[in-house]
């Protein structure tokens, strides 16, 4: 049987065109927000322009005005076009995994987890440019505005979904893989005052439940699941579920893609040993 290559539909609407259509509809339905829709989305010709405007209007203040923030964002996107690719993957992740949204407009305009993540991407770019003070300034503003505190030196993948966002803390040497989902109150922290590589390494496709604490330079394997409220102090095998304080192995293997299904339930069988 001959191999059939699947060719994407060139006529399929892009994420940007769908976002614009949602803004058009919102402006028609709610005229009092029409000027906001125009300024933030409809007056721009692409996601980079709109996203830089959105970040700037959120983070700008008396110390660093919105126009300067926007110029920094645009410089980052010009130097690293993959930052916009990552933003698209993050936006698509919210659409796929959050049953509460009605359109792409909600996460882009109103979801602080998505907005904080995009601000972090710019701060991370600044950190790579050795502009450490400005990167830390953006981190501070993120924490004040969104209650999401991610160090600019941390390494995060793409397709990440931070649901609700409040109380998320990610340390300097943490690594988060692609397609990870996490809820509010997640901490990826250290275990003391030691310096150097001291924060968790989270594999791809991992689900971190609300209030989960993963502490120390340990690995949570690909497609693992950490139950809400758990405290993880030792490595978690790939494809396994852990729960409790301290965390114990409760299911291995778990479902194939926990970060996508967002299934927070636990197996009935509990293994009586600490990981």
Can you characterise this structure?
- Helices cover 40% and strands 13% of the residues.
- With 275 residues, it is of the alpha/beta class.
- The chain folds into two domains: 14-146, serine acetyltransferase, domain 1 (Orthogonal Bundle), CATH 1.10.3130.10; 154-275, Hexapeptide repeat proteins (UDP N-Acetylglucosamine Acyltransferase, domain 1, 3 Solenoid).
- Helix 5 runs antiparallel to helix 7 (112-128) and helix 7 (112-128) runs antiparallel to helix 8.
- The protein has helices at 15-29, 34-42, 47-59, 66-79, 82-97, 105-110, 112-128, 132-146, 258-261; strands at residues 148-150, 155-156, 161-162, 168-170, 175-176, 181-182, 187-189, 201-202, 207-208, 213-215, 219-220, 225-226, 231-232, 241-243, 248-251.
- The model is unreliable at 1-10 (pLDDT under 50).
- Strands 3-6-9-12-14-15 form a six-stranded mixed beta sheet. A five-stranded parallel beta sheet has the order 1-4-7-10-13. The protein has a four-stranded parallel beta sheet with strand order 2-5-8-11, with no helix packed on it.
């Amino acid at each position: 049987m001959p191999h059939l290559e699947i060719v994407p539909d060139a006529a399929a609407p892009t994420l940007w065109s769908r976002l614009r259509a949602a803004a058009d509809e919102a402006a028609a339905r709610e005229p009092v927000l029409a000027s906001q829709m125009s300024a933030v989305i409809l007056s721009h010709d692409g996601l980079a322009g709109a996203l830089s405007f959105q970040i700037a209007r959120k983070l700008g203040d008396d110390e660093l005005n919105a126009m300067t923030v926007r110029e920094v964002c645009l410089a980052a996107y010009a130097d690293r076009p993959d930052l916009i690719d990552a933003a698209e993957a993050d936006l698509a992740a919210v659409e796929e995994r959050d049953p509460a949204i009605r359109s792409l407009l909600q996460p882009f305009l109103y979801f602080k987890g998505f907005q904080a993540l995009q601000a972090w991407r710019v701060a991370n770019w600044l950190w790579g440019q050795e502009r450490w003070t400005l990167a830390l300034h953006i981190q501070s503003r993120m924490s004040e505005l969104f209650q999401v505190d991610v160090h600019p030196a941390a390494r995060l993948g793409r397709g990440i979904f931070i649901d609700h966002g409040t109380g998320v803390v990610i340390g300097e040497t943490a690594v988060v893989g692609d397609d990870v989902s996490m809820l509010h109150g997640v901490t990826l922290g250290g275990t003391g005052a030691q310096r150097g590589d001291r924060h968790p390494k989270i594999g791809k496709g991992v689900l971190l439940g609300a209030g989960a604490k993963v502490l120390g330079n340990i690995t949570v394997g690909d497609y693992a699941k950490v139950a809400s409220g758990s405290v993880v102090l030792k490595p978690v095998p790939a494809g396994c579920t852990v729960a409790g304080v301290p965390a114990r192995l409760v299911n291995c293997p778990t479902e194939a893609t926990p970060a996508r299904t967002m299934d927070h339930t636990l197996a009935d069988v509990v293994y009586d040993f600490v990981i």
